[in-house]
Each structure stands twice: as C-alpha cells, then as structure tokens.
Amino acid sequence: MRKMFFVVSFVLCTAACITFLGCEQIKKLFPNPSQKPAVTTSTAVPAQETPTGTKLATVNNKMITYEEFEQNIKNLQALAPDYKIDSFESRQELLNQMINQELLYQEAKSRGIQTRKEVKELVDSFTRRAVVEQLLIDTAENVAVDAQEIETFYNQYKDQLSEPEQRRVREIVVSSEDRAREVLIALLQGEDFSTIAKERSIAASSANAGDIGFIVRGQRGKDYEKYDEIAFALDNEQVSSIFKGSEGFYIIKVIETRAPKAKLLTDVWDDVKNSLLNLKQQERVKDLTDKLRGGANIEIMEELLK
Predict the structure, then answer these.
(1) d(Cα 158, Cα 172) in Å, to the nearest integer?
(2) CA-to-CA distance for 187 and 238, rounded, in angstroms?
(3) What number is the average pLDDT over the span 30-51?
(4) Do 56 and 95 contact (CB within 8 A), yes or no?
(5) What integer pLDDT is reported at residue 276 of this predicted model?
(6) What is the separation of C-alpha 37 from the centre of its chain, rounded to a whole number of angstroms?
(7) Cα angle at 287 between 271 and 302, to 5 degrees?
(8) Per-residue confidence band for 3, with pLDDT thresholds at 50, 70 and 90
(9) 187: Cα separation from own chain's centroid
C-alpha cells in the first residue's frame, strides 16, 4: 500500500498526470497559471513573489500552500477514486512527496536541465496540448440542453432506448456431431436437459446445468450470430436441433423469455441529457475547426501519405 501511495502521489505531482484526466480537470491542474516557478540554485534560492494562499511548508524559499496541497489530494482521488487520504499519516506522506518533488525540481534547475533540447521539446509539446485543451473547454463552455430537447429526442428514439427482448438459455456443447446426435436422441426419449448438460457438456456452463442466464441478441458478437438466431426463434421449453458454434456442436433450450420493455423518460433523462450535451459540444468544436480551416492556407503533400 505504501509503495502504491508513493507511485501515485509522485505521478500526481508531475505535469504528466494531465494525460490521465479529462478536459474538465485541466483547470484544476493549473489553479494559478500566471504564477511562474522560481529560478533556484543548489546553494542559494533567490527570493520570489509570495504566492497567494496559506503557508503549509517552505522548501528553501519556495512556499507550498495549503490550497495547493488540498488540490493535489483532489487530483489524486480523481486518478484513484477508491484511494483515501484522510489520516494524518497519509496526508503527511503526500506532503513529503510534494517537498521531495520541489527539491528535485530546484536541483534540476540548478543543473540547467531545463535548457536541454529534449526537455524544451517536451515542455513545448505539453504546452501545445494544454492550450488546445483549454481552447476546447472554452469553446464548449455554456452549452446547455433544455427539457424540450430531451423530450423530443426521447419520443423520436424511445424504441431504441427500450430494454431489448431477452432469452434465458440452457446449452449442451459436445465435441463432435456424432455425440450431439446421441444427446439429441436422449433428449427426445425424455432425458432431463439439465442433467445431460451437467454430465456431458464440455462448456463452462455445465457447472450450472447448462444455464447461461439471459442473453440479448447481438450482445456477444459475430461468433454468436447463429446461436442468437436460433435462440430467439425458439419458444419457451423448446429444444433446438444440432448446430455448430464457436466451442463445438450445440443443442440449446429456451427456459424463459423477457419481452422488450420500454423505459420511461425519467429512467433515461440523465443519459439523454448527457448525450445531447456531448453532441452539442462536439458540434461547437467542429464549427470552430471548419471556420479555422476555411480561413487558413493549408498545403498537403498527399504523395507522402501513400
């Protein structure tokens, strides 16, 4: 646990953590972007402007504020929601990591590492990404969705928003068609499907007497298209014929059916609202991009793409 805390909190203290957070977190990671870090040396740290906030610690002449510390906790918990920093020991450890990070930064500055080409390129790349993300945040700001839009969308697409038809299925899977025929004959002679599934099926579902629970058409992908086609054509308690599937030769039985169920507007209100909001934000960004491209002089060497 202590090792995990060290790794995550150390990462948190660096700018690299932005790549793990959504655009909404960008502003939080730069609570005071106008404040420039002090230029330091290993022997003497020059004075700097006093940062705003409540002093929590100082590292040489650099102040770490209580507000910065609390923001780091919020950012850390955004990366690892289940991890709590609520004890004196855990908060003390995080502060120590911030102090270590500041000491390492000051030492790096004293060695002139910030002037190296690869560091400048990395900083430029980060700055470029951060300002573009901030532009996108600004562009999508104040986008709203009203109740009428949500209701209109729901009425137009409520069939697709319904819970689809479901079938509860038992299956028997064997390795060859000959064995499948033997099983089918036994079933036609009145042997119990569940018992045969438990004793003779090679599928993992045999542990549950062949019961795979409820399935939705198309939910399991292309490999199960034939399986779904057959399952959703059967009536309750009806047994299928033999068919070949992804694990072998199948015989299935539908044991329960759930009809499609319409969802009320109140059930999907938040989902519809968030989807419409996201769509509007994307449209805003696209409009800006189209406008910029329309007014720009762009030249593309397409032959280099081939």
Answers:
(1) 37
(2) 11
(3) 40
(4) yes
(5) 95
(6) 33
(7) 115
(8) very low
(9) 46
CA-to-CA distance for 235 and 237, rounded, in angstroms? 6
Confidence of residue 51 (pLDDT cuts 50, 70, 90): low
Q: In whole angstroms, how large is the CA radius of gyration of the chain?
A: 31
Burial label, 275 (beta-carbon count in 10 A; 0-12, 13-18, 19+)? middle
Residue 78's alpha-carbon distances to 12, 60, 164, 184, in angstroms, are 10, 30, 34, 55
Q: Which of the listed ranges 25-29, 36-40, 289-293 does the model predict with the highest average pLDDT? A: 289-293
Distance from C-alpha of 189 to C-alpha of 109, rounded to nearest angstrom: 84
* In the predicted structure, residue 294 carries a pLDDT above the cut 90: yes
Domains of the chain: 2-139 (no CATH), 164-258 (3.10.50.40)
When pLDDT is cut at 50, 70 and 90, the band that residue 159 belongs to is: confident
The DSSP H or E segment spanning 216 is: strand 211-216
pLDDT tens digits, 231-247: 999 999 999 999 999 89
The first and second tokens of residue 292, run together, are 């910029």
Angle at 75 between CA 70 and CA 78, to 5 degrees: 130
Residue owning tokens 């955004």: 78
Cα–Cα distance between 101 and 59 in angstroms, integer? 10
The CA distance from 178 to 185, in Å, is 11
CA angle in degrees (0–180, nearest 5) for 261-264-265: 140
Torsion of CA 229, 232, 236, 242, to 10 degrees: 10
Backbone angles phi, psi at 31, to 5 degrees: -65, -25
